[in-house]
Design brief:
The protein is mainly alpha-helical. It has one domain: Recoverin, domain 1. It is 48% helix and 10% strand. The chain contains five helices and four strands; from the N terminus they run H-E-H-E-H-H-E-H-E. The chain has a two-stranded antiparallel sheet with strand order 1-4. It has a two-stranded antiparallel ribbon with strand order 2-3. Helix 3 crosses helix 4 and helix 4 crosses helix 5. It starts with 11 loop residues before the first helix and ends with a strand. InterPro entries: EF-hand-dom_pair, EF_Hand_1_Ca_BS, EF_hand_dom. GO terms for molecular function: calcium ion binding.
């Protein structure tokens, strides 16, 4: 194998750092925690911060996309009634909990 390929061969230490995807329930609590003003709505800025905390590579895009998927009434907020669509979107991305 050429030296410039940078392949990482698994080691015993790698098996210790496992990660598992967030569950829908965990993400529900996570997003509720990001409702900073307590109005039970998630704004685009609150979503952007949440996706940033999930270590998204592009939290602004994820917030915009989440709004498009979940904000069915077009008020630029995710309500409790729209939360299921947000959770389905976020679960589909498969963010990982670093264990």
């Amino acid at each position: 194998m050429p030296r410039h390929w940078n392949y990482h061969f698994p080691t015993p230490e790698d098996s210790k750092s496992t990660s598992v995807p967030y569950t829908k329930q965990q993400l529900d609590e996570f997003f509720k925690h990001h409702d900073k003003n307590g109005d039970k709505l998630l704004s685009k800025e609150e979503l952007k911060k949440a996706f940033d905390d999930l270590q998204s590579r592009n939290p602004g895009f994820r917030a915009w996309r989440a709004m498009g998927k979940a904000d069915t009434n077009g008020d630029q907020h995710i309500s409790q009634q729209e939360m299921e669509a947000l959770l389905n979107y976020a679960v589909g991305i498969k963010y990982q909990i670093k264990a």
